[in-house]
Design goal:
By secondary structure, this protein is mainly alpha-helical. It has helices at 6-25, 47-62, 93-106, 114-131, 133-153, 157-172, 180-207, 238-245, 251-268, 270-280, 289-299, 321-329, 362-388, 411-418, 436-443, 459-463, and strands at 72-77, 82-87, 216-219, 226-227, 284-285, 314-315, 478-479, 484-485. It is built from 16 helices and 8 strands.
């Protein structure tokens, strides 16, 4: 792709400047929003609800590596049945081959009896775990690290009391600092998610067999990534940024913002954070998978329709803050996805295609319309955050993890349950620090009081085939460049 024109460069900087400032203020823009928080059981789900969950689950099993490159999105079209698949990094042949093998199993489910379906569930789960071995191995390692910290914490009464208080606060909306228990719960849930998603696939294959019968799988080519030219250093002063965000006619608001920014800068070094993010990090921006599918369908809307005219795109993980805004502002009127509300500075609009540099092109017109609409909302959000002078939020995980107990458990009874954390059943000779899979088995066991009802003990059979590296990672922190955890210590 040719270089960025000066006119488009100005448009992109107008967009990224308030976004980077908002990132410097707080990378997380609100609580995670999930459309399925109150979803019915698989048996009670409508065909539309089941089909949407099926597309999400199909995307999830294709996302085989933690870190962002393999985040997958899928759109479904009929007559004939086609699945259009995209990932943050172009889908590899191994993904389409894997999907074909999955469909060859799912198409048999409709004619199976109960016992045969149970056997097929085990077969499909085993195949999914083996395909995602690298991802699960990462989760197991992080779980092991968290469990070591949990073991230390349960010996320390004040730490344990803080953990109990944190769990109670889950129900009152107060979020405290990160704890090893929270991290352990997250990684256990991530491992058990394979069981949940396989159950969704089987339910859809049984109730909606038309979705699995010899579909065509079509990978979508990724738009090119770009490195944005750095702006002049003099334009990165907080006062200058405030001037560009507020009309000159609103002098009182401008004065208030300048004063608030000075206060925030003293507390959190906002200007230095902003400069580092904008200049030193120099992220290579790329288009996220769900937007690739969105624009592919929109560009071909005259001939390409979503299945049953249900404008929905499945994805292996919730959308980021910018993707969520893009969906909300897009003329295609596709159902906005769940979102983890996190800002990624390597975000790029899906209009970054050949022809966008021509200001008279359809692509350029759409990009200008979308980015201008988004920047208005980002500026409003940034101004609100500056005026409120709130601190940064606790780290949130991009992927959603369901609780391992009923979400209807009353907070009043929770402390009594959590006081028993040190009595988690461990058989003689077992070490719950060195063998986190023991706890995973217990969580996945529907007969266990700590279990998740959507999981099953059979998960451990597949996990036994996953090699766990003994090399300890140096970092468990999320990376903007990789949109996930940087796996420095893994082979």
């Amino acid at each position: 792709m040719a270089g960025i024109s000066s006119k488009r460069n100005k448009l992109l900087h107008r967009f990224y400047e308030p976004l980077v400032l908002l990132y410097a203020l707080d990378q997380f823009q609100g609580d995670q929003l999930y459309s399925d928080n109150n979803r019915p059981s698989l048996d009670d789900a409508t065909e539309k609800e089941l089909r949407r969950r099926y597309l999400n689950s199909l995307s999830y099993i294709c996302d085989y590596k933690k870190g962002g490159d393999t985040v997958t999105a899928i759109g479904a079209a009929a007559n004939p049945l086609r699945y259009y698949i995209a990932s943050n990094k172009a889908p590899q042949r191994k993904v389409t081959d894997f999907l074909e093998s999955v469909f060859s199993k799912l198409e048999q489910v409709y004619n199976m009896n109960g016992e045969e379906r149970i056997q097929m569930e085990s077969m499909l789960l085993k195949a999914c775990v083996e395909f995602s071995e690298q991802r699960i191995r990462t989760y197991l390692r992080f779980l092991q690290l968290s469990m070591k910290e949990c073991a230390k914490a349960v010996q320390d009464k004040p730490v344990l009391e803080n953990f109990i208080r944190e769990r109670v606060n889950t129900f009152t909306g107060h979020k405290k600092s990160e704890s090893p228990f929270r991290a352990a719960k997250h990684y256990i849930g991530r491992i058990a998610a394979h069981v949940k998603n396989v159950k969704v696939l089987l339910a859809a294959a049984q109730r909606l067999p038309q979705l699995v019968l010899k579909p065509e799988i079509i990978p979508i080519k990724n738009p090119p990534s770009i490195v944005l030219p750095a702006p002049r250093g003099s334009s990165l002063k907080l006062d200058s940024i405030a001037n560009r965000m507020v009309p000159s006619s609103q002098s009182q608001l401008l004065s208030e913002l300048r004063s608030s920014l000075q206060t925030l800068d003293r507390l959190f070094s906002i200007e230095n954070t902003f400069r580092r993010a904008y200049l030193e990090k120099n992220p290579r921006a790329r288009v996220h998978a769900e937007l690739i599918v969105l624009e592919y369908f929109y560009e071909r809307s005259a001939t390409l329709e979503h299945w049953d005219n249900d404008r929905f795109i499945g994805c292996s993980k919730p959308a980021c803050y910018c993707c969520s805004l893009y969906f909300q502002e897009h003329p295609a009127d596709v159902e906005p996805p769940s979102t983890h509300q996190r800002i990624y500075l390597n975000w790029l609009p899906p209009t970054n295609l050949p022809g966008v540099e021509d200001p008279s092109s359809r692509l350029a017109t759409l990009e200008k319309k979308m980015l201008n609409a988004m920047v208005q909302r980002i500026r409003i959000r940034t101004i609100e955050q500056i005026r409120s002078q709130t601190g940064r939020r606790q780290k949130q995980y991009d992927s959603t993890t369901g609780e391992t107990y009923s979400t209807h458990t009353k907070a009043a009874s929770m402390e009594k349950q959590l006081e028993r954390i040190d009595t988690l059943p461990v058989a003689e000779g077992e070490n719950w620090i060195d063998a986190p899979s023991i706890l995973v088995t217990r969580v996945a066991d529907p007969e266990n009081e700590y279990a998740n009802n959507d999981a099953e003990a059979g998960l451990i059979v597949s996990l036994e085939n996953v090699h766990l590296s003994r090399q300890i990672t140096e970092s468990c922190e999320d990376s903007d460049d990789e949109q996930g955890v940087k796996l420095l210590g893994f082979v």
